[in-house]
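It is worth pausing here to work through a concrete case rather than discussing structure prediction in the abstract. The textbook approach is simple: state the sequence, then state the predicted structure, then interpret. We follow exactly that order.
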Amino acid sequence: MITKPGNILFASDLSVDMKKIFEHAVAMATYADANLIVLHVMEEASPSAERQVKMAFGENLYQEIKAKHKSGARDLLIGKNVDALRIRQAIAGFFEDRDNAPSHADSPIKKILVAEGRSIADEIVSTAVEEDCAFIVMGCRQQGLMAQAMGDKLVRKVLKRSSVPVFVVPRDNA
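Step two, the predicted structure:
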């Protein structure tokens, strides 16, 4: 028996074409009356690259730039929260006259996380487990299911490492 998902993880790289993938994640969360956890992972610099930047610009400037990058990513994700509310309201209007309408009209976003790690795929998978997510929603630049699974390195890594299902949404190729 399939159980109702409590949490859904949306992995974002903050690119413009992620809006379509985000809309899918919000629609799925709304339909299932689940919480959406939004995650952006910043890849850590290698120790040698980090040392070189610190030597060139100093420890304080390096930490300031890193903090601004993390804050900027969080601000972009919070902007998506406004989109989530609009999308959820539109979906609630669609269900208005039906018995299976979503139970609440507020944003489905439960948490917005900005993480940092050496492996983006590992951070996505570990966050899905830590947050008890029923599945992961992420985008892929390739077209077709097999191309998605085999063509995008990050998607392939998440698919191999994840113990929860991964819902892959094709991105628009511009």
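Step three, interpretation. DSSP finds six helices and five strands in the chain. Residues 19 and 80 are 8 Å apart (CA to CA).
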